[in-house]
Design goal:
Layout: E1 2-7, H1 10-22, E2 27-30, H2 34-37, E3 47-51, H3 56-68
Antiparallel strand pairs: 1-3, 2-3
């Protein structure tokens, strides 16, 4: 398994996981149990997404497309 994402935004992690799963990738979002236990402690990068090594390139393409805004909803949506 290869880590392709690190962050602290639970919703962004779930969104990326869903986008990757739609493309048929096996995806694991790690660190979600820490979300509630952190409380007021500032923690960055406690979430990570891992994929099979063979899927690394495709997963990274999806992350780049997300960061470019390719999945943003327009006025017509």
């Amino acid at each position: 398994m290869i880590t392709v994402y690190r962050g602290s935004d639970y919703f962004e992690g779930q969104l990326l996981k869903g986008l990757m799963e739609q493309e048929g990738l096996q995806v694991f979002l790690n660190g979600t149990a820490l979300q509630g236990g952190l409380g007021e402690v500032p923690a960055l990068g406690h979430l990570s997404i891992t994929v099979n090594a063979a899927d690394r390139e495709k997963a990274e393409e999806i992350i780049k497309a997300y960061e470019r805004g390719d999945f943003a909803l327009g006025d017509e949506d």
